[in-house]
Specification:
The complex is a heterotrimer of chains A (176), B (392) and C (229).
Chain A: H1 2-12, E1 18-21, E2 24-28, H2 31-43, E3 49-58, E4 63-72, E5 77-86, H3 102-112, H4 144-151, H5 163-171
Parallel strand pairs in A: 2-5
Antiparallel strand pairs in A: 1-2, 3-4, 4-5
Chain B: E1 30-34, E2 46-52, E3 55-62, H1 70-75, H2 79-86, H3 95-109, H4 115-142, H5 147-168, E4 177-178, E5 181-182, H6 190-213, H7 216-222, H8 240-244, H9 252-255, H10 276-300, E6 322-329, E7 334-341, E8 347-353, H11 355-367, H12 376-382, H13 388-391
Antiparallel strand pairs in B: 1-2, 2-3, 4-5, 6-7, 7-8
Helix pairs in contact in B: 4-5, 4-10, 5-6, 6-10
Chain C: E1 24-27, E2 33-36, H1 38-41, H2 57-69, E3 71-74, H3 85-88, E4 100-103, E5 111-115, H4 120-132, E6 138-142, H5 144-148, E7 170-172, H6 179-194, H7 200-206, H8 208-218
Parallel strand pairs in C: 3-4, 5-6, 6-7
Antiparallel strand pairs in C: 1-2
The chains are: A alpha+beta (176), B alpha+beta (392), C alpha/beta (229).
Amino acid sequence: MRALYDRLKDRFQLGELTRQRPDLGFVTVGRDHLRALLVELKDVEGFTHLVLFTAVDWLEDGQFQLTYLLNNRATAQDLGVRLMIPREGASMDTIHDLWPTAETYQRELYEMFGIDFPGSPRVDEDFILEGWTDLPPNRRDFDTKEYSEATFAERAGRESHDPRDHMKQKLYPDGE
Amino acid sequence: MFKIEPDRSQYPAHNPDGSCDIDLSSGKYVKIWHGPNHPGITGNMSLELTICGDEVVEGRTRVGYLHRGFEKLMERRTFIQVFPIVCRVCVPEPDLNEYCYAAAIEELAGIEVPDYANWMRTLILEMGRFNSYMMYLGGQSGSLGMGVIGQWTTYVRDLMLDRFEELTGARVYHMFILPGGVRDVLPDGFAARMEETLKTAERYLDDVDKVMFQNAVFNKRTRGVGYIDPALFDSYGVTGPTARAGGATTDVRRDAPYLKYDELDFEPVTGTDSDIWARADVRRRDTRLSIDLIRQILVKMQKPGEYFAKIPNVLHWKIPYGETYIRGESSRGEYGYYLVTDGTGYPRRINVRGPSYTHAMALLERLIVNTNISDVGALMVSLHTYPPEIER
Amino acid sequence: MKDEKYTPLPRRPIGLDREELKKRTVTAPDGQTFEVDPIRDYYCQDAPKAHQRSYIKIVEDFFNWCRAESLWILGYGTGCGAIEMRPLMTPRFDAYRYGIQWRPTPRQANLLMISGYLSVKTLKRAIRSYEQMQNPKYVVGLGSCTINGGMYWDSYNTIKKLDEYLPVDLYIAGCMPRPEALLAGFEDLKKIIKAGGGEGANKYAENFEWYKANQKSVIKDWDMPDYNW
């Protein structure tokens, strides 16, 4: 993992390598170098398997983190490529031509996070939700409890507790 | 080996990107919905098929009928409260979810799991895999009209559910593997009763071999149908038995051993033909492998010892910033949890990587083009998709 | 709740604005042209009518006995409870001996099992399936999530109270209910029907406006007629 990082570090201006496990590392890359890095990893370094592609919402920093997790089947190593994009008007280049299956991930991110992928096929179609008009639900500023209370009828007599407060009162009444 | 290749020259040509210029107003094409309320679909999902005669010219997978917003709900719950939710991500094989989540938490929080708990987890995972394959064998034969095999395999699965019940107290959602270890030790005499169950299972599997795999109808309808080119495996994220049926030797249990798989003696089961028959065959032999592994585990397991590591007070349990990915081999392929923590008492993001996500979407949409409509059910089942893990 | 900064991304049209639901002219392969208005042509728009009871009690009781002894379930697994349906119809529990069987199409079924949580997208299909079933028809809600939301009480995509949207005859509690609980539930449903209490379809017809208003308040993408025969 370290040797691979040293090989690629200067060419793609990678950030610091986080070695989570001996076979799992995460690197940060700039937007300009992302595609070149993915192509290099896929075609030269043997990271041919796109394990997952997802986003993390860092609301406080106003950023989305996109994670492309690649797997090298021969050496059983995983490399997570992190990329930060601004939350406002979030948009990213599509990679469906490198991995056709990325098309599905991009449809999900479009719907659940509101990240645009211009050029990705059928990206504006309904994927999971149907007729959704509110904020994309996986954004952290979308409050699912508030939405649920406002939309769905509740059965009278059901008591709903905030999980954390309820546990605190029930299990540890004296505070601790 | 015989391959059937029907003459499909008279059907519409496809563009290089796989799309097809279909003019629905021409009266030549019919658009039909295969599901969600349809007996030939695996669970609550649907296929939107455009057919010309009885050949499918375009298929679109429509999912989202089982979406509960788990990834959002998990962000609202403390680390221990997430644990009853994760098993509901995949209904027929819930234990792997529990393992992946627990292992991710343990890695980020730095908890060392006792040895005995790891053996228990391995046992539970193999039992879950066996159950899942039993569902598959019933479904695959049922999709070709052989109802009786579903009756047998469901019965055998019920016997295994009895063992689960004895061990965990529940039939479907066991909630047995939790961060820190497992909930209990093996009950007395468990190994003997398990052996009895496995013997019954083997007897029924022998019958399945005869009735299903030596059946002329099953052979004719599955050989050469639904062929996946092994060159596509990487670009479409094909893993697990579906890939092994095409000659690939990807098995997470062997490639990146987790739990106690490196102490068990087994070789991944592979096939050659990459068609529906090969996939069914790989899963049939994998079921036998599971039985063998359960026996090995019960022999190699030591005497009950410590089975739960000390975890912090769950109310004040904060996990520092970190991200990790834990994978396991499910009965359908590579299953994984991507977990990001941010130093608070709640997970920042949990993403579930289900094998059905890639199999049932992009891959199925590609495979389904130019198949006969009567093969669609069998083709779908042969990819062994469970919709809840596509949409969570 | 809306974030001012967020501008929604473009989506394909939903509901009745959809391309395939618009009026259009179709040319058949033989050259004939004709107008198609999908919503009007493919469905019947009449609202459901309440079913008249028979005047003699013993005849009605006989009908109810017949109905109770042949519960035909629509094989639509709407949620995770569907996994316990398989053991139920196989030799271990064998619900067939109570006159219960599974049918592939709503036209042949008279019992709709809502097996677990209903997402909004499935609710729409469940309503369609229910309306396509023949009278008399019954609905059984399975699991805590149909009763009060269960563990999905704060989810943005699952309904919390099934009887707001469909007339429910019986709930079976549990997460998920065991096959034995389901068998007991079927026996209870039979008792209800034999006592003349299985009036869900009539209730639905009589309170049609209320049910529709509830359904439309949840289903944003309404692209079907008000009643699907």
